[in-house]
User: What shape does this take?
Amino acid sequence: MEAEGPRMVESAVLIVSELASNAVRHSRSGRKGGWFLVIVVLDDDRVRIEVIDEGGFDRPQLLAANHWEEESGRGLLLMAACAKDWGVKERTHGRSVWAELARAGE
Assistant: This one.
C-alpha cells in the first residue's frame, strides 16, 4: 500500500495499536511486570513499525475472516491490508512483529 500524509498517519496508528495490543494480549508481555518495545523507523521510501515483545505460545498469523460477528481476530488482517509487507521474527527472549508502509511515490 502506498500512502502519505493523513492516510499514512492513520495506517501507522492502526498498526502500532494492533501490534502493541497483541503484545499485551497474546504474549508474556501482558503479565505483571511484562514489557514490549515499539520501534518506528522513517526512511525516504518507507515507514517500518516493529513491536518486540516477550513472546508467547502461538505465532501471530492471519486468521480467516469468516465470522464477522466475532469481537476479535481481525486485527492482523486490517494491519496486513494497510502494510506493504509484514512479518514475524522469533528472538532469543521473545518475538518481533513488524510492518512496513510504502511512502507515496515509491
About this structure: Residues 5-26 form the longest helix (22 residues). Residues 65 and 71 are 12 Å apart (CA to CA). The mean pLDDT is 86.
